[in-house]
């Protein structure tokens, strides 16, 4: 006995798509695990492998020694600067004291001929000389610091040069690594994508179509999300070109299928209504009745109120349903031969008495 329940049909559709999604999910998890294992077949390069470790180590040793020397020289420079500041402060205080004392001595005679004045002026000159000596030492110290910094910059330049050379070799090795990863992934994913497209084209109407559809979804994910995004330099081109190819191919297939269906329908409508009635399948008839469309031309067979003259409108809704399709002439409703009940002409049994229709007999 054939089951025609709409609820069963809806439930079945949900179950079918659930099977497809669940299968797709587990295939994705499995493929991710396989792809991760495939990546271990080639070793990712590290920048340390391309450095001249002995040369870099020697340069690091030298620059560390120079850094220590510069630090010590800066410490001595700070000490000298503090000493100069102290000497300058002492000189300033002594000069102010001398000026005050000299002003007092002017009232008593000739300070320029006073021996004590001469002695104190010599002491003031000695304080100034001490400050100048420390300033000379500061200049010498700064020269040594500049020399050490120049050596430091030269060593750092050599270190940077070695690192640039290592980075250039690392960049080239990384591109080769990415190419190897791409080829490995492509050899794994490309057959899956091709098989998924084949399943979609060949088995989309198969009784086990949910399984094939789930594999097709997985193949699309494996290509667009499992393969290309790991290759940002040129992966986008591959993805877009394949997307264009698939869109054009599937678009061409869909347009061709739709055109063939339209042409077949147009050719079918040229056949007599009796022949067309014999070709209507029960499943199509059930959907046609439920959605009130003609099973042959697919157009609505219910006449809307605004399509009917006002004089002929009756409160009985069945008056708005025609026995024949007004678009292609196919018989839609007819009376039962036994009880006279009006039935949809393409269903196998009478809804009133259960008598088998003449067409089924």
Summarize this structure as a short list of keywords or feature phrases.
single chain, 361 residues, mainly alpha, Helix Hairpins, two-stranded antiparallel ribbon, rod-shaped
Topology (elements, then pairings):
Layout: H1 6-39, H2 53-105, H3 115-203, H4 209-224, H5 235-269, H6 273-278, H7 282-290, E1 333-335, E2 342-344
Antiparallel strand pairs: 1-2
- Report the average pLDDT across residues: 77
Number of helices: 7
Overall geometry: rod-shaped
Q: What is the second-level CATH architecture of the largest domain?
A: Orthogonal Bundle
Task: Write a structural description.
The protein has helices at 6-39, 53-105, 115-203, 209-224, 235-269, 273-278, 282-290; strands at residues 333-335, 342-344. It is mainly α and 361 residues long. It has three domains: 6-40 and 193-269, no CATH class; 47-180, Helix Hairpins; 273-344, no CATH class. The protein has a two-stranded antiparallel ribbon with strand order 1-2. The two termini are 17 Å apart. The model has no long low-confidence stretch (mean pLDDT 77).
């Amino acid at each position: 006995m054939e089951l025609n329940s709409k609820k069963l049909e809806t439930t079945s559709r949900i179950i079918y798509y659930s099977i497809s999604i669940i299968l797709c999910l587990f295939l994705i998890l499995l493929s991710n695990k396989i792809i991760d294992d495939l990546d271990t077949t080639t070793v990712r390069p590290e920048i340390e492998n391309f450095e001249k470790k002995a040369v870099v180590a020697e340069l690091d040793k030298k620059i560390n020694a120079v850094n220590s020397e510069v630090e010590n020289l800066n410490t001595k420079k700070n000490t000298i600067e503090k000493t100069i500041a102290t000497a300058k402060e002492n000189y300033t205080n002594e000069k102010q004291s001398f000026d005050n004392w000299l002003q007092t001595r002017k009232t008593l005679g000739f300070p320029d001929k006073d021996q004590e004045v001469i002695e104190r002026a010599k002491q003031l000159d000695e304080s100034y000389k001490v400050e100048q000596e420390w300033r000379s030492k500061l200049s010498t110290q700064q020269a040594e610091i500049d020399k050490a910094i120049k050596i430091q910059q030269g060593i750092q330049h050599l270190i940077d040069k070695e690192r640039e050379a290592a980075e250039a070799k690392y960049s080239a090795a990384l591109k080769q690594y990415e190419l190897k990863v791409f080829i490995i992934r492509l050899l794994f994913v490309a057959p899956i994508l091709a098989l998924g497209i084949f399943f979609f084209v060949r088995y989309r109407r198969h009784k086990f179509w949910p399984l094939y559809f789930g594999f097709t979804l997985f193949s699309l994910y494996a290509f667009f999300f499992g393969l290309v995004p790991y290759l940002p330099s040129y992966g986008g081109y591959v993805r877009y070109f394949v997307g264009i190819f698939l869109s054009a191919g599937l678009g061409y297939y869909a347009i061709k299928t739709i055109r063939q269906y339209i042409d077949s329908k147009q050719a079918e409508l040229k056949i007599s209504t009796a022949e067309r009635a014999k070709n209507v399948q029960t499943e199509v008839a059930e959907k046609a009745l439920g959605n009130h469309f003609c099973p042959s031309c697919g157009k609505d067979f219910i006449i809307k109120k605004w399509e009917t003259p006002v004089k002929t409108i009756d409160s009985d809704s069945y008056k708005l349903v025609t026995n024949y399709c007004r678009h292609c002439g196919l018989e839609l409703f007819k009376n039962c031969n036994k009880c006279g009940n009006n039935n949809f002409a393409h269903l196998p049994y009478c809804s009133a008495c259960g008598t088998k229709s003449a067409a089924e007999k």
